[in-house]
Amino acid sequence: MSQIARRGVCLVLAAPSGAGKTAITDALLACEPNLERSVSVTTRAPRVGEIDGKHYHFLTEAQFQTALIRNELLEWARVLQGTHAYGTPRTPVEAALAAGRDVVFDIDWQGHRSLREKLPADVVSVFILPPDLNALEMRLRRRAGDAAGEIQRRMRVARDEISHWPEFDYVVLNDDLAAATALVRSVLHTARASTTRQVGLQDFVTALTR
């Protein structure tokens, strides 16, 4: 079957913690062979079982600062002032897009803003909403190790995250994981079919109509 060359898509999924973003991302990766996860850089040390280049690219603080100076990151942030930094490396993302592969990003609204500034024509973004805040709090409480004070802090952060939903192209309510995943998958497929992404469309149509 004839193929039309296309440029890949940056699929950004953002959500408050506990809304199901990771589960949706994992489900998409399991059923979309042309989709890959963006692997972030970080200055923190690897945790037990983490593999450099698979879970994160682990950098020293000096290496991270060099990457910033060289404009090698599409977006970056520190979770808390003075703590470890995280960021998205530019080169693997741009290589994937040029090769027609899609990249899914698990970043917050600030990362989404930065990525859209750097790659404005390539980003399609989806904000994942929980069915209600009570359900979100219950999901957070089911996670082992979070004290009551930490739960409340996460809920405050969640409210702030949710306030940025208008900045995204699509909003999906995750009250059913399979249905939410199907909706996000349809967004990806729609983005792939855009005429602006199909860089080989003109040549294909010209050959088709000779």
> What sort of overall outline do the alpha carbons produce when their principal axes are compared?
globular
Label the structural class: alpha/beta
The CATH topology of the domain at 10-38 and 101-208 is given as Rossmann fold
What is the radius of gyration computed over CA atoms, rounded to a whole number of angstroms? 19 Å
Largest sheet: 5 strands, parallel
Outline the structure in words.
- This protein has a five-stranded parallel sheet with strand order 2-7-1-8-9, with helices on both faces. A four-stranded mixed sheet has the order 4-3-6-5.
- It is of the alpha/beta class.
- It has eight helices and nine strands.
- Helix 5 (133-142) crosses helix 6.
- Strand 5 (73-78) and strand 6 form a beta hairpin.
- It has a domain at 10-38 and 101-208: 3-Layer(aba) Sandwich (Rossmann fold), CATH 3.40.50.300.
- It has helices at residues 21-31, 61-69, 90-98, 109-118, 133-142, 148-162, 177-193, 201-208; strands at 10-14, 35-37, 41-42, 57-58, 73-78, 85-89, 102-106, 123-129, 170-173.
- The model has no long low-confidence stretch (mean pLDDT 92).
- Helices cover 42% and strands 19% of the residues.
Set out the fold topology.
Blueprint: E1 10-14, H1 21-31, E2 35-37, E3 41-42, E4 57-58, H2 61-69, E5 73-78, E6 85-89, H3 90-98, E7 102-106, H4 109-118, E8 123-129, H5 133-142, H6 148-162, E9 170-173, H7 177-193, H8 201-208
Nutshell version of this structure?
This protein has eight helices and nine strands. By secondary structure, the chain is of the alpha/beta class.
